UniProtKB/TrEMBL annotation:
Protein name as it appears in the record: N-acetylglucosaminyltransferas-like protein
Compartments, record wording: Membrane
Residues annotated as domain Glycosyltransferase 2-like: 222-420
Gene Ontology molecular-function annotations: glycosyltransferase activity
Provenance organism: Mytilinidion resinicola
Residues annotated as transmembrane: 76-100, 405-422, 442-461, 473-497
Length: 512
């Protein structure tokens, strides 16, 4: 087993704050300043790039609604049947994943109970544990208000042998930030297992990670955390025990919990969504389709695999891309509900919108790049005996293709209903209800079954909800779920539109 090397603060040669952008600015300052007409053209170009996706999505809604207004009743019936059937499929797949998650949840609770009975004596002796590099990735100035708090928490609270772990604070900033940077560097004098790295020329999380992956640290595992996370003190130990128990595991993805659920109505809904995703959908999908995914934070990698794959800086969601590249090579990813971390949800709708648009475009990029895994042959397999099964291929098909197409199915159904409201505006609430849900007899059964699937999924979510989520929040989430689906689908369309115009700005989420 490799031993951790002696860590010190990395000093960047010459001026650590001097970047390629600074060089370009300095060079341009010696030349004639650009004309006002050049500035105007640049502003117009940026305006067009920002607003073209909005115009595309708005035009899509207007055109689709108008088209349905002029369709015959027979054609409308066909469209209605297609949309209700696809909605039924999505609801059915979701509830199947939810039921599949029951077993992993029970196993996680059983393991915790056994650990409590043994006075928290874990199976592996401390001296035999794997060497771990835990990375806290920060983007300044967005996270300047929280980075010291999270760094001190990780250094003081994480329960793992100090000679087997290094807490690495990776950060980048476009300008000097004092006294914060000095305070960060001082951590290495107070804590022997601390390492602070300022990444020169970095403009993204991928740049920060790739810089670290060029360093030879001697670790067996690398854990990745966004700066807003509080890892549970035992999370690293739970993750490492999974690696020790199964030598074929390459990635362990933990559960992310929103801890500011009570701050606003928006954060409470995101908290329920995260419980549904991380405690239900992810472990259920892994059981159902036979593969898991690294989700960007609270994930543990074998160092050799991560150093080989690295992060693709051209992808807006480099984490999903790396997870899919790992899966394409037969890497084994497991979801462990005991590997828990607590994070912040966006508190305002603009911040939420910006974050989800980046995710939507990133997923679109990753889906286009990796959908070929549905039909191609695995190459450079990590585990010689592994091969991509039919079930796994269909899971990828569902995750990358059906999920992206579902944005159009949901929004087309919405446009169809809007056309009904315009052409046959109901005069009473009962007429509206019948118009929206029971336009055709088969709709009754498809609608009722879909509602049952939703209730079952949220009931299972309620059984595994975090301590920050109340039953009232889950009820509220279920009531606004139709609106949530339409909003999510619209964001998905917006992400596609951004991809069409090749929008490439990486917009980090502000943290306070």
């Amino acid at each position: 087993m490799s031993e951790p090397k002696d860590f010190t603060v990395i000093e960047i040669a010459e001026d650590p704050f001097y970047s390629p952008q600074d060089a370009a600015a300095e060079a341009s300052s010696t030349k004639q300043k650009p004309s006002s007409s050049g500035d105007t053209v640049e502003r117009i170009s940026a305006f067009i790039s920002d607003w073209t996706p909005f115009c595309l999505v708005a035009s899509y809604y207007v055109f689709s609604t108008c088209l349905y207004m002029y369709c015959s009743d027979g054609l409308i019936a066909v469209f209605w049947f297609i949309y209700m059937c696809t909605n039924f499929y999505i609801a059915g797949a979701t509830v199947l994943e939810a039921f599949m998650s029951i077993t992993p949840c029970r196993e996680a609770r059983k393991i915790v109970t056994q650990a409590e009975q043994k006075a928290w004596n874990f199976p592996t002796p401390d001296s035999e544990l794997l060497v771990l590099d835990l990375l806290i990735v920060a983007y300044l100035p967005n996270e300047k208000d929280i980075i010291m708090d999270r760094a001190l928490y990780a250094l003081q609270q994480i329960d793992y042998p100090r000679d087997k772990i290094r807490i690495n604070i990776l950060y980048n900033t476009p300008k000097p930030m004092e006294p914060l940077e000095t305070q960060l560097n001082d951590l290495t004098h107070r804590f022997p297992h601390a390492r602070v790295i300022k990444v020169p020329g970095s403009t993204s999380k991928a740049d920060n990670l790739n810089h670290f992956l060029t360093l030879e640290t001697g670790s067996d595992l690398i854990a990745i955390y966004d700066c807003d996370h509080y890892p549970h003190p035992n999370a690293p130990r739970w993750a490492v025990e999974r690696f020790m128990a199964d030598q074929e595991i390459d990635i362990v993805q933990g559960r992310c919990v929103v801890f500011n659920a009570a701050e606003t109505y928006l954060t409470s809904m995101i908290a329920v969504e995260f419980d549904k995703i991380y405690a239900v959908s992810h472990p259920g999908r892994a059981t159902m389709w036979g593969f898991g995914l690294f989700c960007g934070s609270n994930g543990y990698w074998r160092s050799s695999l991560l150093r080989e794959l690295k992060m693709d800086g051209d992808m807006l969601t480099e984490d999903i891309d790396s997870a899919l590249r790992a899966f394409s090579r037969g890497a084994k990813t497991v979801h462990d509900l005991n590997v828990t971390s607590y994070e912040l949800a966006p508190t305002t709708f603009p911040a939420f919108w910006k974050q989800r648009l980046r995710w939507a475009q990133g997923w679109a990029q990753a889906s286009m790049k990796h959908v070929k895994m549905v039909y191609n042959k695995p190459q450079d397999q990590i585990h010689a005996k592994d091969s991509r099964s039919f079930v796994a291929r269909f899971g990828i098909f569902s995750l990358l293709l059906i999920r992206e197409v579902s944005y159009y199915l949901v929004t087309q159904y919405t446009c169809l209903v809007l056309s009904f409201l315009i052409v046959k505006f109901p005069k009473t609430g009962s007429e509206l209800f019948k118009l929206v849900y029971f336009q055709y007899p088969i709709s009754q059964w498809l609608f009722i079954i879909s509602i049952v699937c939703l209730v079952a999924t949220l009931w299972i979510t309620n059984q595994v909800k975090s301590e920050f989520v109340s039953r009232g929040m889950i009820i509220s989430f279920s009531l606004m779920y139709p609106g949530y689906l339409i909003l999510s689908a619209t964001i998905g369309l917006y992400g596609h539109a951004r991809q069409v115009v090749r929008y490439s700005s990486w917009n980090p989420t502000a943290r306070k």
